[in-house]
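Action item from last meeting closed. Structure (131 res):
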């Protein structure tokens, strides 16, 4: 049996037997989706195959029906519209891409928008010759 446990970094790396058990399941849970345990959503964060521990953290996620058709942010970082995860390394992503959110595994599509602005400073006005 696999134990789904609540992840706590201080306990996980010192004494895993003290982790709070949320549920026991017969098979290894999937890392590709969120887990719903008694109406609460969790994402995986650590796995110990030797002791069959699947450590999870709670995640808050918005239903698709509650999102606008186009979720736009005007930020330097990439923010997931479902869970609010912020990817501070978004500059490393391609300009246009469909990908899984590292925070909740939801599929999102992003497009990089680049804008330019200019500062123009007067230096010398042109001479005007009258006729």
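Sequence:
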């Amino acid at each position: 049996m696999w134990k789904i446990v609540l992840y706590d970094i201080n306990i996980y790396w010192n004494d895993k037997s003290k982790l709070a058990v949320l549920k026991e399941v017969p098979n290894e849970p999937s890392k590709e989706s969120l887990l719903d345990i008694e109406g609460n959503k969790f994402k995986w964060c650590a796995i110990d195959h030797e002791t069959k521990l699947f450590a999870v953290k709670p995640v808050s996620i918005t239903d698709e029906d509650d999102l606008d058709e186009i979720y736009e942010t005007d930020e330097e970082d990439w923010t997931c519209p479902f869970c609010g995860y912020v990817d501070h390394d978004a500059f490393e992503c391609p300009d246009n891409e469909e990908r899984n959110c590292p925070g909740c595994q939801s599929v999102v599509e992003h497009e990089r928008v680049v804008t330019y602005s200019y500062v123009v400073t007067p230096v010398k006005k042109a001479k005007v010759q009258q006729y």
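Note appended to the action item: The first strand starts at residue 2 and ends at 6.
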